[in-house]
Amino acid sequence: MGFTKKQNVLGPVDPEIAAEWARTIAAWSPEERKRKEKALVRHIDRRLLPMLILMYILNYVDRNALPAARIQGLETDLGLKGVEYNTALSVLFAGYILAQVPSNMILGLTRPSIYLPSCMLVWGVVSGCSGAVQNYAGLVVCRFFLGIAEAPFFAGTAFLFSAWYTQRELGVRLGIFFCGAMLSGAFAGLFAAGIAAAFKNNRIASWRWLFIIEGAATVVVSLIAMYVIPNWPATTKWLSEEERQLSIARMLEDAGEEEEDISPRRGFFMAIKDYRLWLVVVGQTCVQAVASLTNFLPTIVKNFGYGTIESLLLTAPPYILAAGFCVFNTWYSDRSNVRSLHMIFPLCFTVAGIIITLTTTNTGALYFAVMLMVPATYGCFQVSNAWASSVAPRPRQKRAVALALNNSIGNTALIWTPYLYPKSQGPRYRTAWSVNLTLAVVGILSSIALRLILQRENRKLDRDNIGAIQVEDEEQKTGSNVLESEFADVTAPGGATITQLGGRNEGKSYRYQI
To answer: Would you state the pLDDT for residue 498?
Structure first.
């Protein structure tokens, strides 16, 4: 069965052109195929990564401007009392979670080059409007709608990456992309300090300028992004015909099955019925909950006995280390084609950091624990998303929902975790650290359970593959050529099989990453 024009990730492609491409790719030597694919991936990297990283930096800066505004007098100016500040932190994620899954379902039917920058433009406007709020109610409303506007970006970008990169390439790209958040976390405090100094005696409070300037920068970048971000492989104009066909072929090979044309609704139900995906989600939720300590990192560090300036400076090293570890962990996970161990081992370091925090009051040891926990938790995020993509690789609509579910449900932790750090429990926050310890252990156990389940699934796939090869051998002996390969029923536009497309996976079935 060939692909229809509805399948905008892998088609539409003219059948005659597809057949010609199939003959061309099949004629390549393995060395030529490797060389051309390497050049293609470099081309994709140059087009996708720089702009999306810049967009994510601004996404994270806009979302996390509130803690910096708090230091500059927001609480006093708006008359916030009790846990109202904590509520303003958490309400953003209510909107963020509600919008992610439907957004990714829409993205699968639209053009990413228009949809994602448009969402960015909206969140830039909302962020700028936060500088005009006059009371608690106005702040909460702005934060809620900021969450809705920002929701499509991260899950949508992960979905877009999964349409361009294979399983073995996806994790490290998500890791590099996520470094934007780490770097923004490291330097956001310095930027906020500069704004505070520049507008110290201005009639408009410096925290208001912080929201206005960051929102304006976001709007400008969103307009540029519309001309830079690509769409899907089959509909992106900057690919040559050869690159386009190679992009389609390698994604078919990576999935090991045909791209089925289904509705967003069916993709949603396919995803929520996959119990393996829910184990990924459990791990992501636990990691997100523990990582929420960064919402109070300046306060935590200041409680070690440092002054305000020293505390702001000391929040940077954990983020910088997290950026480096995030890239390393995702890169090595891709290289080894293993996901579970790159969740389990970092979470073990997280457990060690929490135990140190609970059992000592030594300043050096406490800061060392922070240097363990921040990189270890943030280093797991994109491994988890890459794992979700592996568990639900096809159809495309199921993969979109899987990534959105993993990210949105994981972020539910950020709704309630701000209430684990009330002023009344500082500086030790024993309740928070006890909850974090429990969740880190649950995250480890869920990763172990999923690893065992997927190992069993892979053994079943191997047995089925061996049976298919035996049937093929028997039919070839009788002169029948019904099965050209174990992928004979996997066809690209024009009826070309993966083997005809020069498939590097000839003789192998799809395997889940454990």
So the answer is: 36
